[in-house]
Amino acid sequence: MVKNTQISVQTITDQHLTDFIRCPYRFYYTHIEKKKHPFGWRQAIQHVVNRVVYSYYQYPLGHRTPAKVLALIEKYWSKLELRMFDNKLQFYMAAAAITDGLMKNLSSDSNVEQPLFLYEKFSLNVKEVDADLSLTFDVAEWENSSFIVKKYLVDADEQMLKLYFHLIVIFSEKVFGIRPERIEVITLMDGQKHIFTPDEYSLENGISYLQLMKNLIEDSQRMTELYNTNECPSCPFLEVCEKDEQTDKKNKYLS
Q1: 235-245 b/e with 16+ CB inside 10 Å = b?
Q2: What is the pLDDT, as a whole number, of residue 7?
Q3: How many CB atoms neighbour CB 31 within 10 A?
Q4: Which of 34-38, 158-162, 172-176 has the lowest mean pLDDT?
Q5: Is the pLDDT of residue 255 over 60?
Q6: Euclidean distance between the first and final Cα of the chain, in Å?
Q7: CA distance 168 to 180
Q8: Where would I find the H helices in the chain?
Q9: Which residues are paired to 131 by β-bridges?
Q10: pLDDT of residue 10
């Protein structure tokens, strides 16, 4: 039984934490039991987004135009398969939202020099949580005496936004010794830009947050109170998932 499993976390990646926030059961089947599963629509689109952003910044400064953004989206989106999505409507609505979001945000960066970091992965041992942590910086741009970090996501809820804010602060201060000037998380499906400005307490708060997340991951008994039913329709582990017992309990309580 998942809830009786002892979990010891020595290495934490941003993907681990993202998956855990979305659904601890899916995290368990993917990263602990390492069950193979096909790409979901969100993962597939995120891969497209990453390729478009990375390729865009490879162009010389004068060649970063809206037309280039559109060409890159068409190139990588064409590789997606319709079967990854729930239906055709979802496929086309996602295409429209992602195209609009990337066109608006990348075109506004057409005058930015080559980024300081571009999809670079960094690792760090965080003694306070007794674990190694790894994080990929999507885009980091130097500004004055510090830098701006930008993260491009398909979508994100409040918890996901909080996660990236804390992780970016931890890495920036512990690895580079500099507090970021600003952190921008762009959620493309809803077209929002979420801006965070770290302060002198952000590192301490980030460490506390990471300690909490590690404790939650290692305490499999709490999975039944943390899982997210919104993820169920597209989950590849429905047949083996052990959430149903807790769902029944919740339904009885609510009735």
Answers
A1: bbbeeebbbee
A2: 64
A3: 17
A4: 34-38
A5: no
A6: 27
A7: 8
A8: 14-22, 24-27, 41-56, 66-77, 88-107, 158-171, 202-218, 244-254
A9: 126
A10: 80
| Total Cβ atoms within 10 A of residue 252 | 8
Of 101, 41, 39, 47, the C-alpha closest to 70 is 101
Whether the model clears a pTM of 0.90, i.e. scores above it, the answer is no
* Cβ atoms within 10 Å of 229's Cβ, excluding its own: 11
- Weakest mean pLDDT among 53-62, 140-149, 197-206: 140-149
Residues 131 and 194: their CA atoms lie apart, in Å, by 28
Between CA 190 and CA 195, with CA 192 as vertex, the angle to 5 degrees is 155
Burial class (CB in 10 A: 0-12, 13-18, 19+), 197: exposed
With 80 as the cut, is the pLDDT of residue 97 above it?
yes
Q: In which residue are the tokens 């979305």 written?
A: 22
Length of the chain measured in residues: 255
Q: For residues 6 and 172, which has the higher predicted lDDT (pLDDT)? A: 172
69, 56 Cβ separation under 8 angstroms: yes
Given a contact cutoff of 8 angstroms between Cβ atoms, the answer to whether 134 and 121 are in contact is yes
Report the DSSP beta bridge partners of residue 142: 147
How far is CA 252 from its chain centroid?
34
> In this model, does residue 34 exceed pLDDT 90?
no
Which residue from 157, 162, 192, 196 is spatially nearest to 14, judged by alpha carbons?
162
